[in-house]
Structure formats: C-alpha cells, structure tokens
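Our consortium's second objective concerns turning raw sequence data into structural hypotheses that experimental partners can test. To show how far this objective has progressed, the report includes one record in full. It was chosen at random from the queue rather than selected for favorable results. The single chain below, 359 residues long, was entered without modification.
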Amino acid sequence: MSDLLRQSAEDIFAEELDFLIKNEKNPIPDGWSMSPKSVLLYICGGKVGSKTISSKFIGHKRLIEISIATLLTDRSLLLVGEPGTAKSWLSEHLAAAISGDSEKIIQGTAGTTEEHIRYSWNYAMLIANGPSEEALVKSPLCKAMEEGAILRFEEITRCAPEIQDALISILSEKNLAIPDLGKQIAAKRGFSVIATANTRDKGVNDMSAALKRRFNVVSLPAPVDLPTELKIVKQRLTETAKSLSIQAKLPSEEDVTKVLTVFRELRQGNTLDGKSKLKIPSGVLSTAEAISLLTGAMAMAGSFGNGEVTGEHLANGLHGVVLKDEQKDKVVWEDYLEHVVKKRGADWRPIYEASRQLL
C-alpha cells in the first residue's frame, strides 16, 4: 500500500489502464493512450473478456460520450454543475485514461495570476544572466502543450476574468509565445484543456463570451434520485475507506439513506413525500459533502467507538455540514429536527436526540 495520502487516478487504477491499453482493438487517436471506446469503458465500467472494469462515474453515459468526443476535436471541454457533481473526479479520470497523467493542474483561485497559466521566471537567474531557457519556469499548461497531454483547469471561474482570458489565444492558436526568448511553444497532438466551474459557489466570475466559444460545455446534473445517489455514495465510501485505511465498518445502507434523505430534503425545500415544505439552509448539501460526512463518521467510530457508525456520529457530521451560517442555519436545522426527524419514529430517534444535544 502506498504511503501517499492521496494517489492519482492513474496509480490507483493502473492495472485497469494497463489492461485496456494492452488489449486495445480500436484505432487510437494521435497523442492518446487508448481509443475513445476504451476511455468510455474505463469511465463507465464494463467487462472486457474475463476482466471487469470498475465504474468511475455513475450518471448519463451520453454526457461521457460527448466529453470524450469533444477532446477529439480542436475545442476544449468545460464541465459545469453544482458543487459535488463529480466534475473534478471526471476530469481526473478522463486525463488519466487519455494522457496517462492527471496531474498537470492549474487550480483557479482569486489569487491566480497570468504567470500561473502561461509561464514565469527564476528571477535570480533572470537578473544574473538575462532571459534563457534555464531561467524559464514552465507552467502545467506549457508542459501539457509540449507533451501533448491534458491540462486540468480546476474552478476556472474563480479566476478574475482578465486572467481567464489569457487562455483565449492559446486555445485558438494552439501555441504559446515567449517573446523574451523569441520562441513559441506549439501544442503537440493530444493536447487539450478540461476546465471545471461551479454554478452556485460565491466568488464566481462569469467567463467572457470569447473564452466560452473555445469550450464545449457539458453540464453535470446532481443525482436524479435517491437510489442513484445511494449507489454513488456507497461506491465512493468503499474506495475512500480503503485508501485511508479507516478501521471501522462501512455505514449501513439505512444510515447512508438517512443522511442522503436529510440532504435531499433540505436541498429541495420539501420532504421526499412532498407533504411538508422546509426552510433551506445557506450551504450546498452536495453528494461530495455526504461522502465526507460519512467518512468522518467512520473515522470517529473507528477511533473513539467500537467501529460501528451510530446515530450520534451521524448527528455530529450533520450538525457541522448544515450549520454553515450559525445564526440562520440553526433555525433551519432546529425546525427540521422538530417537524420532520422527531416524527419519523424510533429509527431516527438516535439522530434526533444527539442533534438536539448539539444545539
């Protein structure tokens, strides 16, 4: 087992990727590690002979096909959706399957500068000897262009619009000028950009129309129903527990269902049966947050309990996730506990009582 806290997709699923590459029977595009059909199989899962390929993404298969087809063209891919809809997860696995490298990443923030996107300099060498190849510090974008690989641009809309627009000429011309050296870095076949953007987070900057035209936009929806979300969460919990070596049992399906029920009801502002309207908290109760909550509950159960997740562990997690704005969300959560959870009988009683103690 690796001592790394988090391994890349190409390391975790190296066996599956190697198998698909060695057993490839379809044409492979220039610069790609495998054919589009094999990329689709790697992402969505299936059987190749006696080998079972695990599913990495549970959702609309057509969205994956559109994403893969986009990366075959001269347009880049923009994955948009609410937080927790697996945009980063999908971009990582697409890059791992196509390039064999998912770690060429630019993380968009309010502090991202044009140098982070294009290139910068080792200023000690620059002052001592002037502009040179040795003084040039290449960005992940530069390296992706030189190697014909996929660049992942996470949270692109968190960058200021003028910083985002540094991409326009690069995506159009497929080269990056370095005037100080009198040279250009031309993109090799296989180069493309997969960007992600949240639609609900604060601090988001709209992309310019000119930049949007360089992308094909694929919108990833939240899980359509409870069974689909349950399947996603159970799969990710199994993977996470294994990678973090958490010494606890996986939560029961009933406990996972309870957490997802709370999330879905508070997200949509009414109970699942449609009989009661609810106040909506300030935070985005995403599938990713549900996975994080349940992982934390397992960690608590393994470290401070007997290894079994209880209602108290779930209540601790729910309290932290729902109460993002202490003043507003406390009213929302208290109202939900009294008018919904309390009336659901003995199965929900441990969550109700433990939650009340935290208020």
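The partners drew two points from this record. The mean pLDDT is 93. DSSP finds 17 helices and eleven strands in the chain. Both points have been shared with the crystallography group to help prioritize constructs.
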